[in-house]
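Tokenise the fold.
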Amino acid sequence: MVRGPVRGVSRSYGRGMPRSPSSPAFWRSPLRGPWFTSVLGVVLLGGITVLFVTGLVSYAAYNPNLSPVNDMTPDKGLLGFYLFSWPTNPSWLYRLTQGVHVTLGITLIPVLLAKLWSVVPKLFTLPPARSLAHALERISLLLLVGGALFEFTTGVLNVQLDYIFPGSFYPLHFYGAWVFFAAFVAHAVLRVPMALRNLRHLRDEDQRPRTDDELVAPDPAPPTVSRRGALGVVGGGSLLLFATTAGRSFDAPLRETAVLVPHGGPEPGGGPGGFQINKTAEAVGIDMRETTGETWRLLVEGRGRTLRLSRDELLKLPLHSAALPIACVEGWSTSDQWWRGVRLRDLAALVGYEEGTAPDVLVESLQRHGAFRHAALRYNQVRDPRSLLALFANGEDLTPDHGYPARIIVPAAPGVLNTKWVARMTFGEL
């Protein structure tokens, strides 16, 4: 338990004087201190690093350097130095990386809030800067706090499909991540050595540092919980969020535990098409009677050739099967579904590309509005034998919401690149 004030500091400090946020006496919680803050900081050091890396990986998965239609942040400049061609193996790669990114981000919210609460007195410290090092720390702290709140808030809103900020989620979250992580690195360089010393020398939570610490209340209120107890509450909150979020990456009955996130709860409907979707035909303006009936034709173009194929004509081509999951940027995914259709590389062959030479492809959807009406796929994705223009799912015709009459399914690709209601495919340099 916390026993008393910092050694050498009178408990009468601050009594009888104005208490403003810039006054140490304003902050009286006995929980604040170097040990409490250091434990939370070390947890966030590892967790936020994983979040940043998996976030960058998620952006690379869209292959933004391939085509303008894939690039949601066209002015990224040098910030895109790391981008690489997204692989197709293992097929569950994006399911893993984005599932970790979203689930970990939500799980860390209690830790982040507790950390911000533990250091809030520093935001009001006067004078603003006592030295160059102190000024750099204050600036990094302001950027860190603002960046953390912005990134976690926009991320949660995007996950909930209730994004309300102006502009696109992608550039705001992308640029915000770089600003936040730059401040995070600067702050870590300045503070991690001290945090590690605090953890080594303050293993007993009641032990006080020999020198004054600006986080320790000079006139603390009576303790109601120990610091370890407070950490238990924070950890319990994180475990609760994990337990009510992680199920989104699995099938029933685990998906039913994901009560705090979309695409949780029971499987949508039953039968072969009873697995999660990210957008319905109605939501994107698909009129099943007018656009996907007998008059529907798939336009396949390349090397100066244009083919118009009906669904019956596609069914006469060699059909192949692949077991692949669907995984979306919101962090939800399905287990492997059994898809059957025409290989993308076989469609490329129909317009003159020999086996093994299939190029990139631009895919266009019938959908009238919404993001990713067009999407580009790299040649390695086109050439993978599991990449299909799917006509069936789990042994039955595609349902309208799963992309009837035909949809793309590619191993390891984000869900929005698995274009539904395909209308046109253009093979060639993009």
User: Anything to note?
Assistant: The longest strand covers residues 337-343. The two ends are 65 Å apart (CA to CA).
